[in-house]
Amino acid sequence: MMRSSAYHAGFAALRRRAEEKLQSSQQKLPEYSASQVEIHRIIHELDVRQIELELQQDELLKCREDLEKGIQRYSGHYDFSPHSYLSLSPNGTVVDVNLTAAKLLGRDRKMLKGDRFERFLSERDVPVFKELVDQVFTHEGRHFCDVMLLSDEPSQTSTPFSEGGIFYRNVHIDAVLSSNGEECLVFVTERKMKQNETRVVDDFSHLLIDKVIHSRIRFAALSYLYVVNQAFFVEIRNCIKATDGNLSIHMRMLESAQYISCDKEFQLRKPQTIYRITPQGRDAFIRYSKIVSALIAEHQPDE
């Protein structure tokens, strides 16, 4: 209402200025008497101009109606699509979400906007998701990851966690950069388990394996830090035979999960990056080792 009042007030002020300018310009015009032919010509030109403006207005109204129909049609396809779509900001905040995604997350659509998407992921998958978003905004192309999504109730793909009976949905996330480069467009699909896969998942649950550690470079780096407790970046790189770029990315993921800490120190008057394994990282590595060892030991084939 305030915006409408301000609009009308501005329009009235603009009209007053136009009338004042018209009066001032008319005062400067010399008096003359127009012939009847000239008067009819001017009236005809004004009538034609009025009709032209009316036709343009009709065209603009028709274009507006077509645009509104297109927006409604797009909104219908977006909202009622069987697939889950979200738009995220660079820090992972939900900008827009369709009804299917809101249902998957178990929250009201209006409440989801402005919330952080990582809140709905298992704690161990948060660093993986953050790395995905960073990759979308720094590298072109399609990026994807598999994560566990919190669920209020079990479903065909939900598996109960041992801590507090929490349920998760195993989902696959595809992400690309929007055309304006300001948002991360996310497409979430729930991974369906086939009937003959149920026993395998029950016996060899991949949900127990820490995804942050379960990578060749991250596992090798954390294993080395578990033994030596702390090491410089160059030392870790040379030990596990990784490149600077790859190691930097994986060390950031371990740091995001608070499995390691990163500090800058001087060695021979040169700044060096030193990493230390945290108590949380040590516990996670022990838990990971026990789970993998148990899976191997419990299911050894009979000789």
TrEMBL record:
<dbReference type="Pfam" id="PF13601">
    <property type="entry name" value="HTH_34"/>
</dbReference>
<protein>
    <submittedName>
        <fullName>Putative PAS/PAC sensor protein</fullName>
    </submittedName>
</protein>
<dbReference type="InterPro" id="IPR036388">
    <property type="entry name" value="WH-like_DNA-bd_sf"/>
</dbReference>
<dbReference type="InterPro" id="IPR036390">
    <property type="entry name" value="WH_DNA-bd_sf"/>
</dbReference>
<feature type="domain" description="Winged helix DNA-binding">
    <location>
        <begin position="217"/>
        <end position="296"/>
    </location>
</feature>
<dbReference type="InterPro" id="IPR035965">
    <property type="entry name" value="PAS-like_dom_sf"/>
</dbReference>
<dbReference type="InterPro" id="IPR000014">
    <property type="entry name" value="PAS"/>
</dbReference>
<dbReference type="InterPro" id="IPR027395">
    <property type="entry name" value="WH_DNA-bd_dom"/>
</dbReference>
